[in-house]
Amino acid sequence: MTEQDAAETEASSGEADESGTERGDADVSGEAASEERGDEAVDEGLIDRVAESDPEAIATELASLRTRVDGLEGAVDERDAEIDELESKLKRKQAEFQNYKKRMKKRREEEKQRATEDLVSKLLDVRDNLQRALEQDEDVDIRDGVASTLRQFDDVLDAENVDVIEPEPGADVDPEYHQVLARVDSDQPEGTIDEVHRAGYVMAEKVLREAQVTVSEGE
């Protein structure tokens, strides 16, 4: 390649680069211009619609929108007020329930105390009779007095819904009501009660104390 050819080639390359650069700048400028024209078209369209609309109709629509917004705000305020009222009622109900629990607990304690007082009051007469029996002269037979006092005591237990657990010999053993102390030789059938060593008591179907018994091993 001659010096003249090289020079011509370089010149052609430079012109091509300048041409490409110019075309790139033109494309960017064209896009920006297109966007500006689009915004202008939107704005102009909106302006045209507003300009073509009846001012009174626009004012009416705006007033309607304001009224709707005010109504929604009012509804929100009412809902907030309802929530506050419900929360307040819930707190009052919780406080009332706690007070109710305290009253019921106190009432049960008072009823329990009164029940104990009533029972003790009934037993005072029994104690008085026992005391009088012990104050009798030594040569006086107090068996009748003690028997009378025992009947009185049984009446008190009966009034308190207390039953005596005192099974007959030969009765079947019930683990719920009987406590077996020992197995002994007896004339009773094997495995049945031979003798009651201490009576038991049940109150309102609740065993207060099992009866202590011995059980027959048979002959």
Please describe the topology of this protein:
Blueprint: H1 3-52, H2 55-134, H3 143-159, E1 162-165, E2 178-184, E3 193-198, E4 200-203, E5 206-209, E6 211-216
Helix pairs in contact: 2-3
**What is the residue-averaged pLDDT?**
79
Number of helices: 3
> Tally of extended strands?
6
**Helix/strand/pairing class, anyone?**
alpha+beta
H and E order:
HHHEEEEEE
Kindly provide the radius of gyration, computed on alpha-carbon positions and rounded to a whole number of angstroms: 54 Å
Strand residue percentage: 5-15%
Main beta sheet strand tally, sense and closure: 3 strands, antiparallel
State the end-to-end CA separation: 145 Å
Report low-confidence residues grouped into runs of 5 or more. Answer: 18-24
Shape: elongated
Question: Approximately how much helix is present in the residues?
Answer: 55-70%
Placed side by side, the strands forming the largest sheet appear as 1-4-5
